[in-house]
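quick one, 62 residues, struct below
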Amino acid sequence: MKKNEIKKMSKEQALKDIDKLKKDLFNFRFQKINGQIKSPSKINETKKNIARLKTLVVRKDA
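---
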């Protein structure tokens, strides 16, 4: 997810994406434990995207 895409999102859309990314992260962790994950870098990328979206939500509240 790119910065420009995140900046254009509404607060509601960001919250929906956070929920989706959290579910993805949960699944990636299980895949990692089972040795099924093809790209371990997706875990870090997902965490960073969640943080970016949370920052957007906080800024839109202020």
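The mean pLDDT is 92.
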